[in-house]
Amino acid sequence: MDGCRPTPVEHGRSPDTGLDDPFNLITSKKMQNDPTRRRFLLTTGHGMGAAALSSLWNPGIIGSAQAAGGLPGFPNFAPKAKRAIYLFFSGGPSHIDTFDYKPALREIHGKELPDSVRQGQRITGMTSGQKSFPCVAPMFEFERFGKHGTWVNKDLLPHTASIVDDITIIKTMNTEAVNHDPAITFINTGVQQQGKPSMGSWLSYGLGSENENMPAYIVMISRGRGQLQALYDRLWGSGFLPSSHQGVKLRSNGEPVLYLNNPPGIDREARRELLDGLKELNNGTFQKFADPETQSRIEQYEMAFRMQAEVPDLMDISKEPQHVKDLYGPAVEKPGSFARNCLLARRMAEKGVRFLQLFHRGWDQHGSLPSKLRQQCEDIDQPCAGLIKDLKERGMFDDTLVICGGEFGRTIYSQGKLTKDNHGRDHHGRCFTTWMAGGGIKQGYEHGETDDHSYNIVKDPVHIRDLNATILNQLGIHHEKLTFRYQGLDQRLTGVEEARVVKEILA
């Protein structure tokens, strides 16, 4: 979805009826012919739940906690973080070349990956035909930084090196997915298959927004200079949750949100009258079909109208002090850059946006990794560090959770021919690195340990379900309690598989 334009949701639902299965079709027909049945289901909260439905239905309570989409009893306990900013590096950054440095790799450079290390594990079709799998040490210089002597690639991440005492580096992230779309879908929705709600949608559903003029969940996308893997709108979609909880994607050119500006010759008062008329028509549809998605559609139009009061000013960084802009680097002046999006994320976090997700594309370095990885890191290094420093200076660091990472890592062995100054790396889900900061996370801490080949985990694994459970925990949510009844199951972000809060990284 661009902006607040309503779009059909997943699972084959009709854009007009939102029906999910034959049972719902039968139910809908019965409700049309039986007003009493329809009213009963509405008053008992069929589909959305009574609280959520009433908050959308009653415009008089917009601005309250209920109207913002929060559920009764949420947060479940006092949160450490009021909001979260997720810096997502789409494509799979190489953990070997950034944070998971092993000095011993220099000794095995060019040697064949031992079968004892690979252990018959799955590899992608892109390298399965190779006759040789030579190990590749980083073609960059590493150095220890901070009070604890944290290894960081000083060539690529000098600014990030300056904040290692503020962050926790998780070196033992892992996932079963080895291809981009399933892996990104997995880490963003809890499953590899399409159709489930995104993390931001779950947070919007459970906690809502602190600002009635802004959505709870905003997405921004920037383009790197490497190979760009596809990003689909469903990655920030609401799945089976009401569509009012899907992420609002801000555009870097033109209107940041579609239909934000009034059409030529239409002032705000006239637009209000237009929306009131449209609302009346949609209410009539709701009375006839009792489809909760109709209520979501009304809320989306209303949100677009309310955003007129906030978004134009938020997108204008001209009044930011120069010393603040300097934190993010010169690219902050370029609309659509990762640097600009980081600054915008801080500004929106200040305005009560619950969850901000910044996708930076271009991390799929199957070839020419030494040069392409350098370009990618040039895009993100200073802005990431600048965001942390900016949050600290504004007193927002302690109650803002920052997450930074991708969908998987890269292999220790070379994809394609290994030369003196060039190589590639394939996808690797067995272990990769993510860092977190603020919002009750330990500072200056490294969690987990991989083997000497950065191939397998030897201590303290963290599955992506554990990461998601930890993110929810810092926002005051018990991951097993945030559920939605769908297809006979109490669905949740972390699924039915085992998931735990990684307490070792909590302050």
Q: What does this protein structure show overall?
A:
The protein is of the alpha/beta class and 507 residues long. It contains 15 helices and 17 strands. Helix 1 packs across helix 2 and helix 12 (322-328) runs antiparallel to helix 14. The two termini are 37 Å apart. Mean pLDDT is 86; it is low at 1-67.
Q: Figure out the total of helices.
A: 15
Overall structural class, as computed from helix and strand content, comes to alpha/beta
Q: Classify the fold: give the CATH topology of the largest domain.
A: Alkaline Phosphatase, subunit A
Q: Classify the helix fraction into a percent range.
A: 25-40%
Spatial separation of the terminal alpha carbons = 37 Å
Beta fraction: 15-25%
CATH class identity of the largest domain:
Alpha Beta
- Give the overall shape: globular
Mean pLDDT comes to 86
* Number of structural domains: 2
Question: Low-confidence stretches at least 5 residues in length (pLDDT < 50)?
Answer: 1-67
Second CATH tier, the architecture of the largest domain: 3-Layer(aba) Sandwich
Number of β-strand runs: 17
**Computed Rg:** 24 Å
What about the largest sheet?
A: 9 strands, mixed
Describe this structure in a few short sentences.
The protein is an alpha/beta fold.
Q: What distinguishing features does this structure have?
A:
single chain; 507 residues; Alkaline Phosphatase, subunit A; 2 domains; two-stranded antiparallel sheet; disordered N terminus
